[in-house]
Write a structure and sequence with these properties.
The structure holds two protein chains of two kinds. Helices cover 81% and strands 0% of the residues of chain A. By secondary structure, chain A is mainly α. In chain B, helix 2 packs parallel to helix 4 and helix 3 crosses helix 4. Classes of the chains: A mainly alpha, B alpha/beta.
């Protein structure tokens, strides 16, 4: 019942949009290679299902690896920021640089340096998803009620105890917020990376498939690839949201996570 | 544990420098209950933070027990606990683990931690609520957990900074009664900062009145009522009379 109430309205909108799309394409008589209708796209999905699934799998692996790497690296960087204000002041501007660099522009360079195949794609995904993790984790580790810090000082807590028993658990809601923002970005990063790097002649991810089908003007197939990419990003987001909701149950909304 | 301050003063460095506490002489006997009242922002908390070793004094000496508080180390070695207006519980820890915190930070053995945290929760009437999380508790219950945490290390000195200021009148009076019982049973020295004259007189054997910032001792009142003090004491004539005297000094000679 509950699922129907939550998912019903957006599904209704989706059905309506698909109908509208079908009507517009049919009535205008536009060529499928310019603007395929929902029927063209669904038959492209059926015809290329195996290739799409394989490509989605490769992209998912690259995105998961990129996200995991940025989670670990971002956490370590944020911990070093929380331990030394000087380190934070000197390096934080460069962390912002990660956020502002146009990833599409430097992706070919990264692929050139790191090489084709998985490592290059993971590197692009890593770079694009790093900043939200750093920013949110740093906020969670440092924006702590001064009374709590006093309490730890009063009871003689060491630096390590304050980090492990206060700062890190306090930062968990913010870390999960960072992860929710970054999980979508990691998929985008993997697809952008794949624009410039395949995994081999017969092995390619969604990004490469998008470039390939675009070049061959297989527009329904291109639409199918884009739809699969979107579905991949959405399922990533849903998975991370579910995990964070379960993990945050005991926080009970007492700590509002920081926003990026 | 006794507390002795000689010429204790604090000025926060500026510019402009802010004097928070004028040189203060104070002696509190071991096991005594002393209330400190003063207008908001007068430096009452600064006095407590100095005793707790959370701030270093600008001038003067401070002894807790027979040990001078070392300014260099920035914290008292004495076995003392501190309770604030905000219960400052850790939301990711359940009630029992919150009460265990001071003992864990001091690396006590696990079996002793579990036993003393449970004992402290029993003292505040939350012995069977150990598995609950802070967000599942009312304000008064959270304050009880905060008090249990403070008592888990069996401190010789308990510092309280307007602990019941955010609670409703009913919870506040109930906790006043419980705090009095705990003080009598546990034998710690109690320094209780409040801006409620009634609370100060009800809990203290002695009430110290501070002036507006920078805090200076205006007067000291002995409170002779015998313990245990019943809640009805608050409505007696003698009690009102003493409250009037304290209020008079608190407001610089005029009764509001």
């Amino acid at each position: 019942m509950n699922i129907l109430r939550v998912a019903g309205p957006p599904l209704f909108i989706a059905a309506f949009m698909v109908l509208l799309w079908h009507a517009a394409v049919t009535l205008s008589g536009v060529q499928p290679f310019l603007m395929p209708g929902p029927l063209n796209v669904s038959s492209a999905i059926v015809a290329n299902g195996a290739t799409l699934a394989h490509a989605a799998g490769l992209t998912a692996v690259a995105a998961v690896l990129g996200l995991a790497a940025s989670f670990v690296a971002g956490f370590l960087i944020a911990v070093s920021f929380s331990q030394s204000p000087i380190v934070e002041r000197s390096l934080y501007p460069y962390a912002i640089f990660l956020q502002t660099v146009p990833i599409v522009a430097i992706a070919p360079l990264i692929v050139l340096w790191i090489g084709h195949g998985l490592p290059g794609v993971v590197a692009v995904s890593f770079i694009i998803s790093l900043f939200p993790i750093i920013a949110n984790t740093t906020a969670g580790l440092t924006r702590i009620d001064p009374d709590l810090l006093d309490l730890f000082r009063l009871y003689g807590a060491s630096r390590v105890q304050t980090l492990l028993r206060l700062r890190v658990p306090h930062a968990i809601p913010s870390m999960l917020t960072g992860l929710r923002i970054s999980c979508g970005l990691s998929v985008v990063g993997a697809i952008v990376g794949e624009f410039f790097a395949g995994y081999g002649t017969e092995d390619y991810g969604l990004g490469y498939l998008i470039i390939l089908t675009n070049a061959q003007t297989k527009t329904p197939y291109l639409f199918a690839s884009v739809l699969t990419s979107t579905a991949l990003g959405l399922s990533f987001f849903a998975l991370v949201s579910l995990l964070s909701r379960r993990a945050l149950r005991r926080w009970g909304g007492a700590n509002e996570p920081a926003r990026a | 544990m006794s507390v002795t301050a000689r010429g204790l003063a604090k000025e926060f460095p500026g510019p402009p420098a802010v004097p928070a506490l004028s040189p203060l002489d104070l002696h509190i006997d071991a096991g005594e209950a002393v209330s400190v009242v003063g207008p908001s922002g007068c430096g009452k908390s600064t006095l407590l933070r100095l005793i707790a070793g959370l701030e270093a004094p600008t001038m003067g000496e401070l002894e807790i027990g027979d040990e001078p508080v070392s300014i260099e180390r920035g914290r008292a070695t004495a076995n003392l606990s501190y309770v604030l207006q905000d219960p400052t519980l850790l939301p990711w820890r359940n009630v029992h683990d919150n009460a265990s915190l001071p003992l864990q930070l001091a690396h006590w053995p696990g079996s002793v931690i579990a036993e003393q945290a449970s004992a402290a929760l029993d003292l505040v009437g939350l012995g069977s609520e150990g598995r609950l999380y802070p967000h599942q508790l009312s304000g008064g219950m959270r304050m009880r957990v905060s008090i249990a945490r403070a008592l888990s290390s069996r401190p010789g000195l308990l510092l309280m900074d307007e602990p019941f200021g955010a609670l409703d009148e009913i919870s506040r009076q109930a906790l006043n009664g419980e705090l009095q019982r705990l003080w009598r049973e546990q034998g710690f020295t109690l320094v209780f900062v409040t801006h409620s004259v009634q609370e100060a007189v009800f809990l203290g054997q002695r009430v110290i009145v501070l002036s507006p910032r920078p805090a200076r001792m205006v007067s000291e009142h002995k409170v002779e009522f015998a313990f245990p003090r019943a809640p009805e004491l608050r409505t007696s004539n003698e009690f009102s009379q003493l409250m009037r005297q304290v209020s008079k000094n608190l407001h610089g000679g005029t009764v509001p």
